């Protein structure tokens, strides 16, 4: 890997734009038994809340994304990560809906996470930060909604880890959502997915610059380990067909193989670029904590092993979206959620979108996904009079 990636944790920059932020003095009680206080939640909003406060849509972000769902990211300068889905005239139309997206607990874009200062020590939390779960993330989002004066949202929408949060919302706060759109996710993290996460975590912790998680105190950053973690994870977001179509076995800026271990192939250069650009915008300890939160997610286990019981109080309408080439969260796991919802007598629609783009398809230009979400959300809004 060429060069030493520069570490930018935007929250440490005096002029960093993290959007809006609310700090709660009341502690967030975590599943691990510990509490977190004070708690800051950074978020963005788009559109306007109507007089009846009935048009709010909560967007839950995936593993390494953030609150900048529909506006340029202040660190990367790139458009919002769901710019094609959320905005004026988009499927989640901000001319009609009031959209909220918050950075998750444990994140590194303004919400309290391991890189923040521990008020008990005056130093960064590092590994003193408590383990958090998907349910803890959802509880923090509920605190944010309370602070914004929003009792119930028209819909909660998200893909991948965001989809896990959507399912957790349905199980934990069934009375606070009118509809739910979990996309490309599952009710629990599979053994294979836990395995990939563990490879990434071990790469970070094996980096000598990690220093037991205290790298901020030493002025270092486990860039190489974090980049390798990102490279391994990124492979799981794609499909073999997409990789073959885009890169094949094409060589990178050379006519012949080098008989060395530099990046001969285009796919190698691509992964190096993904790894290097990632360490510019993400904190290594946050990566450890958030991947662990996904690993611990098992909605059925919270309800005596019966997933349908998780949705026993569900009153919302559900739209489950799966993608044919997603091998991280395959269609079968999405259908498993649909079957559990059916067993709990919930109103559920299921759509499987044919695409060869893999897990990341939910972030890409997929017209069928757009039209499905648009139609579903407008139908829910019409029924609710929002």
Q: Care to give the gist of this entry?
A:
The chain has 386 residues and is an alpha/beta fold.
Question: What do you see in this structure?
Answer:
By secondary structure, the protein is of the alpha/beta class. It has 11 helices and 14 strands. It has an 8-stranded mixed sheet, sandwiched between helices. Strands 2-3 form a two-stranded antiparallel sheet. The longest helix is centred in the last third of the chain and has 18 residues, at 367-384. It is globular. Mean pLDDT is 94; it is low at 1-14.
List the helices and strands and how they pair.
Elements: E1 20-24, E2 28-29, E3 35-36, E4 39-46, E5 56-60, E6 86-87, E7 92-93, E8 98-102, E9 117-118, E10 123-124, H1 134-147, E11 155-159, H2 161-172, E12 179-183, H3 191-206, H4 215-218, H5 223-237, H6 240-246, H7 266-279, H8 284-296, H9 307-310, E13 317-323, H10 331-343, E14 347-353, H11 367-384
Parallel strand pairs: 5-8, 5-11, 6-7, 11-12, 12-13, 13-14
Antiparallel strand pairs: 1-4, 2-3, 4-8, 9-10
Provide keyphrases for this structure:
single chain, 386 residues, 11 helices
Using the alpha-carbon principal axes, give the shape. globular
Strand content: 15-25%
Largest sheet: 8 strands, mixed
SSE-based structural type: alpha/beta
Spans of at least 5 consecutive residues with low confidence = 1-14
User: How much is the average pLDDT?
Assistant: 94
How big is the Rg? 21 Å
The CA-CA distance between the termini, in Å, is 52 Å
Number of helices: 11
Helix content: 25-40%
Instruction: Give the neighbour order of strands across the main sheet.
Output: 1-4-8-5-11-12-13-14
Give me the count of strands.
14
Oligomer: single chain
Taken in chain order, the helices and strands follow as EEEEEEEEEEHEHEHHHHHHHEHEH
């Amino acid at each position: 890997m060429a060069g030493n990636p520069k570490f930018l944790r935007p929250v440490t920059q005096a002029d960093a734009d993290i959007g809006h932020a609310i700090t709660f003095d009341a502690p967030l009680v975590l599943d691990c038994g510990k509490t977190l206080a004070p708690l800051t939640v950074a978020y963005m909003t788009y559109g306007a809340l109507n007089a009846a406060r009935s048009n709010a849509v909560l967007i839950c972000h995936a593993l390494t994304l953030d609150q900048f769902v529909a506006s340029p990211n202040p660190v990367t300068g790139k458009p919002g990560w769901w710019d094609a889905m959320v905005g004026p005239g988009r499927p989640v139309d901000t001319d009609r809906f009031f959209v909220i997206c918050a950075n998750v607990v444990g994140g590194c874009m303004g919400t309290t996470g391991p890189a923040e200062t521990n008020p008990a020590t005056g130093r960064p939390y590092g590994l003193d930060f408590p383990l958090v779960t998907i349910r803890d993330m959802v509880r923090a989002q509920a605190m944010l909604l309370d602070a914004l004066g929003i009792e119930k949202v028209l819909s909660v929408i998200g893909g991948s880890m965001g989809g896990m949060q959507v399912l957790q919302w349905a199980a934990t706060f069934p009375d606070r959502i009118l509809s739910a759109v979990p996309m490309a996710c599952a009710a629990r993290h599979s053994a294979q997915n836990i395995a990939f996460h563990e490879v990434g975590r071990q790469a970070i912790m094996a980096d000598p610059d990690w220093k037991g998680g205290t790298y901020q105190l030493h002025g270092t950053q486990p860039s190489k380990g974090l980049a390798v973690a990102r490279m391994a994870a990124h492979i799981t977001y794609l499909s073999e067909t997409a990789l073959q179509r885009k890169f094949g076995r094409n060589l990178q800026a050379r006519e012949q193989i080098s008989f060395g271990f530099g990046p001969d192939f285009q796919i190698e250069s691509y992964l190096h670029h993904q790894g290097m650009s990632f360490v510019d915008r993400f904190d290594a300890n946050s990566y450890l904590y958030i991947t662990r939160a996904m690993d611990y997610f098992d909605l059925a286990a919270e309800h005596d092993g019966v997933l349908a019981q998780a949705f026993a109080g569900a009153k919302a309408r559900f739209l489950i979206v799966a993608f044919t080439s997603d091998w991280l969260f395959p269609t079968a796991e999405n259908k498993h959620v649909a079957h559990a919802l059916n067993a709990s007598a919930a109103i559920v629609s299921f759509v499987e979108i044919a695409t060869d783009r893999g897990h990341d398809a939910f972030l890409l230009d997929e017209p069928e996904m757009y039209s499905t979400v648009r139609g579903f959300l407008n139908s829910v809004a019409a029924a609710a009079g929002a």
